[in-house]
Amino acid sequence: MSVAFRRESDDEHLEPRFELPIPPGPNLVTTRGRALIDERIADLESALAAAEGEEARKAVARDLRYWKTRRATAIETAARADGVVGFGTCVTFTLDGRERRVTIVGDDEADPASGLLALSAPLARALLGASEGESVAFNGREEAIEVLNVG
């Protein structure tokens, strides 16, 4: 029989499942962010114990490895208290005539719809280092953002 017609196993034709990508840079977390990571790990450990089938276990184990890595590399960081926008601070600002309020958090805690903005987001990077009453550039426009309150 020709080698062209021989098939060793079905596994050799499956798409590879890569690990979940870890965001670059330090893994800064708030106290709330650290608690969320711990909750996620507990949920995944329960799911792994209850998983039926090899594929289900592999998928849960992959997610669990990601979250355990995030917990191991977490650097719990307190918010700045000096009135300057930084990690963990809540900032109220105007952008395009609309007032918004966000808290700058770690990548895994981010939820823009809830006002939790990742430190790595372009808007958060534009706000970093600003103080109340200061205007900062954003999206190619000078003085696009006016910082109203930092706290």
Layout of helices and strands:
Layout: E1 27-29, H1 31-50, H2 54-73, E2 74-76, E3 90-95, E4 98-105, E5 116-118, H3 122-127, E6 135-138, E7 141-150
Parallel strand pairs: 1-2, 4-5
Antiparallel strand pairs: 3-4, 3-7, 6-7
List keywords for this structure.
alpha/beta; 2 domains; 5-stranded mixed beta sheet; two-stranded parallel sheet; elongated; Tscrpt_elong_fac_GreA/B_fam; protein biosynthesis; GreA/GreB_C_sf; Tscrpt_elong_fac_GreA/B_C; GreA/GreB family elongation factor
How would you briefly describe this protein structure?
The chain is of the alpha/beta class and 151 residues long. The chain is built from 3 helices and 7 strands. Strands 5-4-3-7-6 form a 5-stranded mixed beta sheet. It has a two-stranded parallel ribbon with strand order 1-2.
